């Protein structure tokens, strides 16, 4: 039987990488697709088709009103960005009122974080904000299908989320981080993995955990890559204990989660395929060098 996949946040970075593949699956008759979008923001990648339904949504609406938009959805993929997370608990409550829902894929695309980190006074608040939907789903007893990722290519190479914007030709890392791998996830890889899982039999993905890490270069390999792409020697800036402390104190700019990534990098404690997590190995796209060139 053909099932229905719902997607929210279709116009964001993750949504734009995922939606075309879901549209293709719907056009091929593999699924029915419900695209939840903000009023006035119909995604350009949503063609008219008998298996594709556009559902305009207002996150300010009541749970009862939102629940009507969730009817018939079996697998729900949340692709909303940070600005949509405050509404995620309401969305999950609306989903819980539908007898059709089989599993919920939350928008917490990130590294694996420990219970100690979730309760850390600096890091815990931002992690629990990010897990708003997950926590609500667990409270309501809904099935959650989880995706773990590295830092997105855009955030690594352009935004410098871990202190290394490519154009500045600087890598911020200490000796341990230079020797250890850092996980980078290409957006198209995540989109393909989400679509592949969501178009599978819904009962087979309930409660499952997946990881999508496209590349795992060491810090030294990143230095070599930056030197090659920029055509000049890359500066290595030492990441010190003082740097870590300053980041953890910078709540306004989510510094604690950035410091958390540096911690995992120094200890090589990623564990993306531990505890029964399925790592996606289907990436066949551009090389890390080719991906990096996009951001020059």
Automatic annotation (TrEMBL):
Highest taxon listed in the record's lineage: Eukaryota
InterPro entries attached to this UniProt entry: NAD(P)-bd_dom_sf, NmrA/Isoflavone_reductase-like
Gene Ontology molecular function: any one: oxidoreductase activity
Assigned keywords, A-Z: NADP, Oxidoreductase
Record bears the keyword Magnesium: no
The protein's name: NmrA-like domain-containing protein
Organism: Neohortaea acidophila
Taxonomic path: Eukaryota, Fungi, Dikarya, Ascomycota, Pezizomycotina
